[in-house]
Amino acid sequence: MNKSKRVLALGMALCVLLQTSLIAGSTDNKSVVKAKAAVENGAPDDWRLLAKQAKVLLRKKKDLGTAKEWIEKSIAIKKDVSNLELMGDYYALNDLPTQAMDYYSQCSKLLVNENPQADISLYQKKIWALKY
How far apart are CA 54 and CA 6, in angstroms? Predict the structure, then answer.
């Protein structure tokens, strides 16, 4: 009798665990669907929208190929620190440190070109984390 109670309890625990992971997965999928809809319905030259929705995909670690595509389009429209950093984050997430460091360096250079007193410590930290 004791053994059957344990098996039943284990079965119920597995059901709860499975249900929880399915709910979390569906939330991630909803975010991806919303991001894709936003890009499809947005203006084709809205580089900020592309970058913002790519950031959602990177954060969720979902559909990274689409995220990269959107970041590339965003950069092609307007090269900005935010989309360059996202591309660095994409490469860092995909274990490509050399490419990530290149984009973080571009961020630093762009900031310093705009303002020689700009704080580039965030990008230095990201580069440092990739090296060590």
Answer: 46
Q: Which residues lie closer than 8 Å to 111 by C-beta, 6 or more apart?
A: 81, 118, 119, 120, 123
d(CA 115, CA 8): 65
Beta strands in the chain (DSSP E): none
Residue 54: count other Cβ atoms within 10 Å of its Cβ: 28
pTM of the model: 0.77
pLDDT in tens, 66-84: 999 999 999 999 999 999 9
pLDDT tens digit sequence for 15-30: 555 554 444 445 568 8
Closest CA to 97 of 124, 72, 131: 131
Judge contact between 53 and 62, C-beta under 8 A: no
Distance between CA atoms of 129 and 116, rounded to whole angstroms? 24
Phi first, then psi, for residue 43 (nearest 5°) are -70, 140
What is the spatial distance between Cα 90 and Cα 86, in angstroms, rounded to a whole number?
Answer: 6
